[in-house]
Amino acid sequence: MLELRPNCECCDKDLPPDSAEAMICTFECTFCRDCVTRSLGGICPNCGGNFTPRPIRPPSKLAKYPPSTKRVLKPNGCDADADH
Hints:
Layout: E1 22-24, E2 30-32, H1 33-39, E3 52-53, H2 59-62
Antiparallel strand pairs: 1-2, 1-3
Pfam families: DUF1272
InterPro entries: DUF1272 (IPR010696)
Protein name: DUF1272 domain-containing protein
């Protein structure tokens, strides 16, 4: 089950469960589309994998399978990973 993390790990932008801006890698690292394209060049700074749009969980399933509330944020944002 995907965690559906609530924010971008780079810029801390809110990414609600229905966000079309949320991108994930195979380890569910979560970033906004802007950071993936502008700062990361499509490569996850945590694992080196690529990104895909995060699936949107149907609203009818959110009560039984709620999104994560734990915010993950890279201490220095993505600028420190610009060489990836």
